Amino acid sequence: MQWQDHAIILGVKRLGETSVVAEVMTRTRGRHMGLVRSGRSRAMQPVLQAGNLVEVTWRARLHEHLGEFRMEPVTLRAARLMETATAVYGVQAMAALLRLLPERDPHPHLYDALDVILENLQNPADAGELFVRFELAVLNDLGFGLDLTECAATGVREDLAFVSPKSGRAVCRAAGMPWADKMLALPPFLSTGAVVAADRESLSAAFRLTGFFLHRHVYEPRGIEIAAARNGFMQAALKAVAVASLDDDLASPGLAVKG
Known about the structure:
It comes from Rhizobium multihospitium. By secondary structure, the chain is an alpha+beta fold. 39% of the residues lie in helices and 20% in strands.
């Protein structure tokens, strides 16, 4: 058996003296493993770095076998991804999210989203919002998607301010205020049609929102912990958004500098 596809490197594990088992995300074959002979060679090590885009050919005698990868580099972005904390942690955290999905189960929109996000992780101010949307997409593919389009109580689509922790549905401010202390906050940038960017407060609320449902529906039932990389990414992203906001304030024409 044989197939060929573009793939994003998620990670590698050593196997023997010279080979590795590579884990990749492909558009049509989902998350896939394969043996890379001489994967620890000087020529292959730069290629087999997390985040790189490669063209992969997989061969095996039977479909259920591990099989062997042959790889050619397409976009080597790993070096760029090492430049910021958000990118370093982001690659690891998204790989951990994809490992929650069944191996070899195609999720083309997640592959496309991963490819786009990896191209933008070097911009720390945008990385947090992109990552949260990726978590929401993974939750949806796992069967636990949130409905943030309209109020669960009234059906209105305006002024959505909360998310019910029971149903995962949005609730408008008027209907949710009596139970605000029991609700999860819905960050404005996640509302349908929103054009506002995430700030530190709304991004922190978004991380709490996705983290709550990931823990309840995925990690707790499986008896596993949320990847440590997520916390590292969260702290780096929140810091980056706070710094970007401060820079914007300092650059504001209305801010007078006294001598």
